[in-house]
Design a protein that fits this description.
The protein is built from 2 helices and 3 strands. By secondary structure, it is an alpha+beta fold. Strands 2-1-3 form a 3-stranded antiparallel β-sheet, with helices on one face. β1 and β2 form a beta hairpin. α1 crosses α2. It is elongated and about 40 Å long.
Length: 91
């Protein structure tokens, strides 16, 4: 149904907004890291890791911690994507 497709499409945005709101302070680091995450059927974080390091272990840890703070996520609608990559950029 069209409503089901909209819910699946909107879920990614819900996850990313929740991660963005979990930010604490500023990391004075240049570069970017890509963090992957997997969300379970009830919204729990079932996996998180660094897919591409920024070159700064400190910055990578801050990015992973931000994802962990954002959990739990809303339960995904049936058929929605549950594996995501999120890029964190330091300035």
């Amino acid at each position: 149904s069209q409503a089901g497709n909209a819910a699946m499409s909107n879920y990614r945005g819900q996850v990313f907004r929740r991660i963005a709101r979990a930010k604490r302070g500023r990391a004075n680091v240049r570069g970017a890291t890509i963090v992957t995450l997997t969300i379970g059927p009830s919204g729990q974080l079932t996996g998180v890791g660094v897919a591409r390091s920024s070159g700064s272990g400190r910055f990578d840890k801050i990015a992973v911690a931000q994802v962990r703070r954002a959990a739990p996520f809303p339960a995904p609608p049936p058929g929605a994507q549950r594996n995501f990559s999120f890029e964190f950029v330091g300035r």
